[in-house]
Amino acid sequence: MNCPKCNSENTQTLSVIYEGGTNVTQSTSKTRAGGFLDPVPSITAKTKSTSVTQSKLAQKSNPPEKKKITIQVGVTIFGILLVLTSFGSQFNISGFLFALILTGGFGYWSYILIKYNKEEWPLLLEKWEKSWYCHKCGEIFIKE
Prior knowledge:
Blueprint: E1 11-13, H1 14-21, E2 22-33, E3 43-54, H2 56-60, H3 71-91, H4 93-129, E4 131-134, E5 140-142
Antiparallel strand pairs: 1-4, 2-3, 4-5
Helix pairs in contact: 3-4
C-alpha cells in the first residue's frame, strides 16, 4: 500500500500498529498481616492488577471505543430513579418534579449511548479497520 501523500511504501494498518505497540501486563500478589507470635491470627489478601502501556504511535492508532453502559447498571439506576420519583410524589410537587427530571435525563442519556453504540460506533470501527499510517510522512489514510 502506497501513501497517497508521499507515495512511500513504508505503511501499516492502524490495527497492526495498535497491536504491536500495546502491552497488557497482569499481576497477582498476596499480602499477609500477622504472624506466629501475634495473638491475632494472620490475615491474607490477594490483589490482582492489570496495566496497559502503549507507544506514542499505538496511542495515535487506538480503535474507536464504545460508550460504556451495561444493562445491569442502566436498569439499576433507572429503578432507583423511579423509586425516587414515587417518594417525591408523596412529599411535594417539587420533589416529584426533581425526581421526574432525573429519571427523564437518565433515560435520554441511556438512549444516546445505546444509539451511538448501535449506529455510529460500527461505522467508526469499519473506518479504523481500513485506515493506514505512513511511517515516512505521518499521513493517516483510508484504503477504499
